Amino acid sequence: MGIVLNQSLKNTIITYIGFGIGGINTIYLYPVFLGATYYGLTNYILSSANVIMPLFAIGMQNTLVKFYTQYRTDEERSRFLSFTVLFPILIIIPLLLLGLFFYDDILFFLSKKNIIVKNYVWFIPFIGLCMAYFEIFYAWLRVHMHSVFGNFIKEVGLRSASLLLLIGVYYDWITVEGFVYATAVVYFIAFLVTMFYAFSIQKPSFQIIIPKNVKDILVYTFYIILSGSVANLLLDGDKMMLNQYMDLGNIAYYSVATYIALVISVPSRAMHQIVYPITARLMHENDHDAMNDLYKKTSINLQIVGGYVMLGIFVNINQLYEIIIEGLKTNDEKILYVSGIPVVFMIGLSKYFDLILGNNNAIIFNTKYYRAVLFLGVLLVLLTVGLNMIFIPIYGILGSAFATLLSISLYSLAKLLFVVKRLHLYPFTNQTIYSMIITAILFAVFYFWEFPFNPIVSIVMKSVLVTIAYVYINYKFVISKDINNAIDLVLKKFKIG
Q: Looking at per-residue confidence, does 291 or 228 come out higher?
């Protein structure tokens, strides 16, 4: 357990560092150094590559983790590793040939609105392929308990490389066109470095042998492809849709807003790493009462922590955008970036609604009903695409954000009702309502309270006041006993109170 806790702590720290570097890139450097068009182009390429990545990897990164420990001998494990690396090629080659056969049609479809995309379409499958095999070799490392290296490359390495490339653009070491090419090279290097590191952990012995339990593997892989495709389409599909209806610059404005909103979901990552195995054990033991108690605790704890992050973003959003647009050259571009503020609110609320469901996903995926929910996810994707097709032509990036808010909210509601009706588990209590009221009141107080100072000073001052008020009120009314206990421990440690 020591190595698990050690690597979990390191991975959490690395994730937050990576998110911080990504924030600097997304909020300031990309808009100022790269410009809206090439920022939008880069984001479109990476988003599209991320969407097709599950098809190239065909779920082998998850399959490797699930089935690796079931093999008892080193020879069986070596064969299985070979299978997970070589089997995707059987899918990749036909997909690439199909892409080449319909290349002109694909080119016309993707570049009919933005002709600049035409020169860079081939980057999408190239980067998607690099992403796929990076994930497979990252899984190779995880099953050998070496997850920190791969996580560092993914969270910090790629974003740090982008930071250096952006600095290169600023000093005219590379052009904005060269930045796109260099980004593709970075993903290729990340894949190669991870592959060779994985080989150093266990020397490969490639052999084309089909595992005995291949049927179970392929069935599981099918559902993982489905799950991964749904997740990635929900994350990046809206940016792909924007390219079909609007100029590329709008993807840049949208990307800044969505990245800010995604910060709200960061607290759930650390909690889910801890809660998932506990959920699996309780579901296996069929301990309904303990599971119901855990469901309520994760819901209110994530609601409080996520609500604090959301509140901090929402009340400071105007000052934050002042910082974002400060280095932009034209007033028109500044106005277009600021138009993304409502996007932050809509995407942020969708993430908040997902947060307050606690360990809902962990519960579902540890029941026999998980396949039905995956198909529900496919319906969600179809709904999202349909809503984007309706709202983007009318409302632009606001339409895409509204489509995302509506579809994710409906999906979250469907999963909630599924757990409540099928498993008779309930996440909400009176504290859920109290927490929402506290958050709403503090938002009303601080959003309209503007400080006549530098934006950074204003953000710091308002954040301090919001923190004091939010923590005090939640503590005073005992919204969460777990969080109160944690605060009491801190106070006791510093001999306060």
A: 291
